[in-house]
Amino acid sequence: MSAKTAQFITIRLSRASRRRSKMSKKARVAIFDFTGCEGCELNHLNFEAQLLDILEHVEIVEWREAMDEKADGYDIAFVEGSLSTPDCITRIHKIRRKAKFLVAVGACAVIGGVNAMKNTRPSEEIREEVYGKDKYLFPSLPALPLSAVVKVDFNVRGCPMTQIEFLKVFTALVMGKMPVEPDHSVCVECKLKENECVYDKGMICLGPVTRAGCDAHCPSFGQYCYGCRGLVSEPNLKAMEEILVNHGLSMDEAHKRLLLFNANQIEGVTS
Amino acid sequence: MSQNLEIKVKHLTRVEGHGNIVVNMLEGVLEKAQLDIVEAPRYFEAMLKGRSFHEAAIITSRICGICSLGHQMTSFKTTEEALGLEISEQTIALRKILIHGATIQSNILHSLFLAAPDFLKVGSVFPLIGTHPEVVKAALRMKGLANDISSVIAGRAVHPISCVPGGFTKLPDAAQLAELKGRLEKEMIPDLTFAAEVLTSLASEIPGFTRDTEYISLRSDDDYALYDGDICSSDTGRVPDSEYRSMTNEFIVPHSTAKHSRANRSSFMVGALARWNNNHDRLCPEAMAVAEKLGLKAPCTNPFMNTIAQVVESVHCAIDAIRLIDSLLTKGIKPELPNQKPTRYGSGVGATEVPRGILYHEYAYDRQGRIMSANCVIPTSQNLANIDDDMKKIVPEICDRPKKEIIHGLEMLVRAYDPCISCSVHMLDVEFVE
User: Fold this and answer.
1) Which Pfam families does this one have (chain A) (predicted)?
2) A38, A63, A115: residue with CB nearest B42
3) Does the annotation flag B300 for ligand binding?
4) 10 Å Cβ neighbour count for B323?
5) CA–CA separation, B94 vs B413, rounded Å?
6) pLDDT recorded at residue A136
């Protein structure tokens, strides 16, 4: 974590601290995971130096990856992963009932993430490919974002979620405020950072249709944007595909590139 | 002794992913002792099919957040072999430093955040903030620095950005590397030494269970093999990585969405303890000194010592990262662009030691540079049969204790393997017929 980020976090937490001193007790927080890679959860632990400060404001009451204890109710549930088995559906309803606020954390929970790519092919076919004749052992549903099944109060986007954004949502909630989601494209932030456009380097990029909030992190490291944050609310996908084709991709490649993280939003669920 | 015992632990805590422990004993006869893997399958093959080589590592990285860097490295090596992409010495050195950082990060996360609470008899790391603040702070500092290695060289720690097939899209500068080196010397080494002292004082809490086991890891002639090497079995010696299928032999069992593996026996172990057993002669003197202090001797057949082996090899990773940075600074960082011009289209195999053991990727590419078939064999799935075999031996040894203690013993055993269950069920094993 950069010194600038650490300073930002410290300032936000001290503000939260002043506001919270008027309140009575710590917020009860629970962390849950569904189908995903647990990279977002790992990023909760990657606060490192700030983790102890954060724990001043909250009591973590349930978190399977890090602790044994279980809880009956919580103020905020942070949920990672997409829903892809019957058991997931049962569990998310239970969590929703027990939580005042439910926050979807990371691409899998917010938009289905890379898991949603499998939704574009018939379910029977892919189960057969992996498990052959034993496919009946393991039921599987299309990978869904949490919002397809329960009400989600806030999103923390990205693959993985970024700590700065997580903290914005977290401190807003702890202070009893509503966080705001950006709805402009990554290109806006990329220009603000004065990066050379990825297209000018002879690469392709999904920045124009991808929702901002990441500070154009990947283009700043010389990589192209592959759309992990989901699409802006009214993306011009046809124009985006044309641009990709004009820069050397076939129509099929262009379409596939867009589906990396956004299969649910672009194709809907087919299986 | 006629014992009846029925144990079911749903969604084991303090491990990555979802697994249940199931034990049934009827009148002293063990009927069942196994780790059920109930993680939802994710079907990565459906995602990889027809994808370009640019996307292979972006997708396979998402198999696991904790091992994302290891998956990426393995993916690059596989793609580079399949497409005939030469990479520079500088790229290899930077990748080795990245692997050292990722190994330290994961080993510290496991040994001090997930396993240490067992030795101190608490349910999580959080009570330790009050009782052992110095340990928690040192652990956070080490994890922070290990992650900073990834952030500086590759853009971020989880799903790194700037490492790609053929090289790097952005290179660190000399000042950044020098700063990392300084922090490794001034923070990491003292913190690791302190962590080793703490664990030495807890040595009596480590169960004295042993079982004769086959150990499989990479092995190379010139270093403690993490980035590259041959496959080495403690039973049968070395084979090239292209023969990985004969060393894994995956098969499906009904109680696990992850496939199981076997080589020369019914099971084998991979991970830090396997690396220690096969490669302890390649460790630097500083790591060997820590091993001696912690009472780790080769060969060691106690799976609970895996946690200790993780701390020992972390010392080696820190020392070797300093050496690699020194040599890069001496040569100077050359402004290289990634080499992404394929010279052929075929298949490739990549094998890397990631924190939990040996990881294999294999891809076959078509003439357009699209993936036709892919296979990933994950360390944790290779360990599952071994965990079951350990359970079958340990249950009769501890079955006369109170049930709560038996459950805790089994949980500790599974945790000692540092299982990464998300990874283990995200296998691909597919031959596409176009």
Assistant:
1) Oxidored_q6
2) A115
3) no
4) 15
5) 35
6) 65
Cα separation of B342 and A250, whole Å?
18
Residue B27's pLDDT band (cuts 50, 70, 90): confident
Interface contact B412, partner A, CB < 8 A: no
pLDDT (tens digit per residue) in B396-425? 999 889 988 888 889 899 999 988 766 655
Supply the pTM of this predicted model: 0.90
Residues 8-37 of B with CB under 8 A from A: 11, 13-17
Q: Determine the average pLDDT of the residues in B290-314.
A: 96
Q: How far is residue B125 from each of residues A13, B121, B158, measured CA to CA in Å?
A: 22, 10, 21
Among A120-124, A216-220, B257-261, the minimum mean pLDDT is found in: A120-124
Contact between B164 and A43 using a beta-carbon 8 Å cutoff: no
Distance CA B247, CA B220 (A): 17
Helices B53-61, A251-267: axis angle to 10 degrees equals 30
- pLDDT at B298 exceeding the cut of 50: yes
Task: Specify the 3-state DSSP secondary structure of B23.
Answer: strand
pLDDT of residue A7 exceeding 70: no
Q: Is the distance from CB of B418 to CB of B114 less than 8 angstroms?
A: yes
Q: Is position B67 annotated in a ligand binding site?
A: yes
Q: Which residue of B has its CA nearest to A50?
A: B140
Residue A15's pLDDT is 64
Query: A-contacting residues of B 168-207, CB under 8 Å?
Result: 168-170
E strand segments, chain A? 27-33, 58-63, 74-80, 99-105, 154-156
The span from the first CA to the last CA of chain B, in angstroms, equals: 60
Beta-ladder partners of B218: B231
Flag if A114 and B59 touch (Cβ within 8 Å): yes
Q: Which residue of B has its CA nearest to A224?
A: B161
Arithmetic mean of pLDDT over chain B: 90
pLDDT of residue A57 exceeding 90:
no
| Exposure letters B302-316 (e unless 16+ CB within 10 A, then b) | bbbbbbbbbbbbbbb
Pairing verdict, β B19-26 and B5-9: antiparallel
| Structural tokens at position B283 | 């460790």
Cβ-defined contact of B422 to A36 (cutoff 8 Å): yes
Establish whether B232 is an annotated binding residue.
Answer: no
B 38-57 → A contacts, CB under 8 A: 38-43, 45-47, 50-52, 55
Instruction: Show residues of chain A in contact with B156, CB under 8 Å.
Output: 160, 217
Q: Which of B47, B66, B429 sits opposite A38 (nearest CB)?
A: B66
Are the Cβ atoms of A256 and B157 closer than 8 angstroms? no
For B218-237, how does the pLDDT look when each residue is reduced to its tens digit (9 = 90+)? 999 989 999 999 999 999 99
- A172-191 confidence digits (pLDDT tens): 888 878 888 899 999 999 99
- What would the pLDDT profile of B326-352 be if each residue is shown by its tens digit? 999 999 999 999 999 999 999 999 999
- Taking alpha carbons only, the member of B35, B107, B139 closest to residue B273 is B107
pLDDT at A98 (0 to 100)? 94
Supply the pLDDT for residue B429. 36
- Whether A215 and A2 have beta carbons less than 8 Å apart is answered as no
**Cα–Cα nearest to B286, from B255, B249, B321, B332:** B321
Cross-chain CB nearest to A126 (options B46, B68, B126): B46
**Cα dist from A38 to A159, A161, B108, whole Å:** 10, 11, 17
Q: Which of B275, B269, B265, B261 is nearest to B303 (CA)?
A: B269
Return the pLDDT at A54.
80
- Annotate B239-292 with DSSP letters as a single string: E-GGGHHHHH--B--TTBSSPB--SSSS--B-SHHHHHHHHGGGS-HHHHHHHH
Q: How far is CA A103 from the centre of its chain?
A: 10
Question: Å from B236 to nearest chain A CA?
Answer: 30
